[in-house]
Amino acid sequence: DCAKAGIPAGRKNEGGLTFHDIRSTVKTNMANAGVDPTFRDALLGHSRKGMDTYYIQIDPKNLIPHMAIYERWLNLEIRQTLDRGVKSSV
Fold first, then answer.
1. Where do the structural domains in the chain lie, given as residue ranges?
2. CA distance linking residue 51 with residue 57, whole number of Å
3. H-assigned helices in 34-62
4. pLDDT tens column, 27-73
C-alpha cells in the first residue's frame, strides 16, 4: 500500500506513482538488460503490432529464458546498489 509507505500514488496526487509508471520502468529496465523487444512486449502483456500480429506466435514456455535474463540483470543492479550504499556509509 503506497499510502502506508508514504509514497504519493495516483494521478490526482502531485508526482503520484501510477501503474503506467511501473510498467514503463520495467520495460526500460528489460531493454537495458537486453531482453528481446518481442518478448518484452509479451511479458508485459502488450499487443503485437503490424505483421507481427499474424506471423509471431509466442509459446509461453519461451518467455522463461527472457524473464531469467531480466532477473539476472535486476539482481546484479540490486547487488551493485547495495554495495555502493555499504561503501558510502563506511
1. 2-89
2. 11
3. 37-44, 52-55
4. 999 999 999 999 999 999 888 888 877 888 899 999 999 999 999 99
Which residue type occupies 31? A
Cβ partners under 8 Å of residue 59, min gap 6: none
Q: Quick one: cell of 54?
A: 499474424
The DSSP secondary-structure symbol of 52 reads H
Q: What distances in angstroms separate CA 50 from CA 28, 53, 72, 73, one per listed residue?
A: 22, 6, 31, 30
Q: Which of 47, 29, 64, 71 is nearest to 38 (CA)?
A: 47
Q: Note whether 17 and 9 are within 8 A (CB).
A: yes
DSSP state of 36: -
31 HSE (CA, 13 A, CB side) = 7
CB atoms within 10 A of CB 70: 20
User: Distance between CA 45 and CA 83 in Å, rounded?
Assistant: 33
